[in-house]
Every structure is written in structure tokens, then in C-alpha cells.
Write a structure and sequence with these properties.
Blueprint lengths: L4 H22 L19 E6 L8 E7 L2 E7 L12 H4 L6 E3 L6 E3 L8 E2 L8 E2 L2 H19 L1 E4 L2 E13 L5 H14 L1 E6 L4
Parallel strand pairs: 9-10
Antiparallel strand pairs: 1-2, 2-3, 4-5, 6-7, 8-9
Bound molecules: iron/sulfur cluster.
The site of iron/sulfur cluster has 11 residues, from helix 2.
Length: about 200
């Protein structure tokens, strides 16, 4: 059976129109933005710049706040480190504060967020809250006691003045200057087991 050029264009044109009509009629509602129903997510928000809390990369983020509540968090395009991008870990930072309630589907404060220091006492299995002041006092007392009990002044006739009983690990959010001070403090105590994430 022969087919003319006009016939071919007519047939393919009808097929394309048919698929477009089918595609539009079956498009899910999620892809159809309804300006009357939906509110732009950043309307009436204040923006604050911040730094990602996860690693020493220090990527910049923009936090959008409405009525005192964080409603959106995304990479800061003006930040020199990440220029708007965030790695998968940083991109989930919003969930440190807010998560979706699986029962209601609505946003709620993350119930697993730790907001105060905690301590687990000897012979107990539970972590309990402790104030920042008490935590600092207890840590200082433990360091003093452990250092006094373990301090070595001389080895093989050589003055060494160190304790092998205490180590220090720095977190990712300490910047170079803070880490420098931590190292100074540790060395002054005779602590030589030192490490810090991504800092020298
Ligand atoms: S976004 Fe990723 S790479 Fe950037 S600081 Fe956070 S964890 Fe590090």
C-alpha cells in the first residue's frame, strides 16, 4: 500500500496530538501547580545565612523562617565554598529541626533532636539531661583526676611529662583557630593522643 507525503504528515500529526491529549488527561495532580490553592513556599519569609553543621567543608546555606519557624533550607548561591550546592548530607540538614509526621503528613519538630548535654552514670543504662554548667564542671573534674593519676614525668631517664590516659578528638565544626586553641590546651595538660576531623 502506497502512502503520500501529505498522508504521512496527517497520520503522524494525528498520532502526536493523540498522545499529547492522553498525556495531559493522565497527568497526575502533583505536577499541576495551582496558584489559587498553593502558596509559594518562601512567601513572607525572612532569610538568614548559616553554615552547614556536618563537615569542615563549611558550605553556606540560606534558612527561610516564617513566624519564627524554619520552613526551608537550601544552599547559598552567593557562598564562596559551595555556590548554592549541598551534598546529600547537607541537603537533609532541614530535618535536624523539622520532619514530616508520618501519621498526619504535616511538619513537626524532630522528636529525636538532642538539645542538651547528656550523661550516663556508672552502672546505669539511661542517658539523662545535664546542664551545660554541670557538664563542664564534671568533665573538668574527670580530666583533673585522670591526669593526676596517670601523669608520667620521666621515662628511661628522659623527662616526658605526659598522660597516656586521655585523648582528644575534635569535631568537624571546629575551625582552624579553635582547633589550634584545643591543641594548645591539650598539650599544656600533657595529652598527646590528639586528632581532629579535617583540620591540622
Ligand atoms: S553540605 Fe556536605 S560538603 Fe558541605 S559542609 Fe555540609 S556536609 Fe560538608
Amino acid at each position: 500500500m502506497g502512502i503520500t507525503r501529505r498522508g504521512f504528515l496527517k497520520a503522524t500529526g494525528l498520532a502526536a496530538a493523540g498522545s499529547l491529549t492522553y498525556g495531559l488527561s493522565t497527568q497526575s495532580e502533583a505536577f499541576a501547580f495551582n496558584t489559587e490553592r498553593d502558596e509559594w513556599k518562601l512567601v513572607n519569609t525572612e532569610e538568614y545565612t548559616n553554615i552547614c553543621c556536618y563537615c569542615s567543608g563549611g558550605c553556606g546555606v540560606i534558612c527561610s523562617v516564617r513566624d519564627g519557624e524554619l520552613v526551608n533550607l537550601e544552599g547559598d548561591p552567593d557562598h564562596v565554598v559551595n555556590e548554592g550546592t549541598l551534598c546529600p548530607k547537607g541537603a537533609t540538614m532541614f530535618q535536624l529541626r523539622n520532619v514530616v509526621d508520618p501519621k498526619t503528613g504535616k511538619m513537626m519538630h524532630n522528636p529525636n533532636r538532642v538539645t542538651s548535654p547528656k550523661v550516663r552514670r556508672p552502672f546505669t543504662s539511661e542517658w539523662v539531661d545535664i546542664s551545660w554548667d554541670d557538664a563542664a564542671k564534671e568533665i573538668a573534674a574527670h580530666i583533673k583526676k585522670t591526669r593526676d593519676e596517670s601523669f608520667i614525668t620521666e621515662e628511661n631517664g628522659v623527662t616526658v611529662n605526659y598522660t597516656p590516659a586521655i585523648g582528644s578528638m575534635g569535631g568537624s565544626q571546629l575551625n582552624s583557630e579553635e582547633t589550634y586553641l584545643v591543641l594548645k590546651l591539650m598539650r599544656s595538660l600533657g595529652i598527646v593522643a590528639l586528632d581532629n576531623q579535617a583540620r591540622v
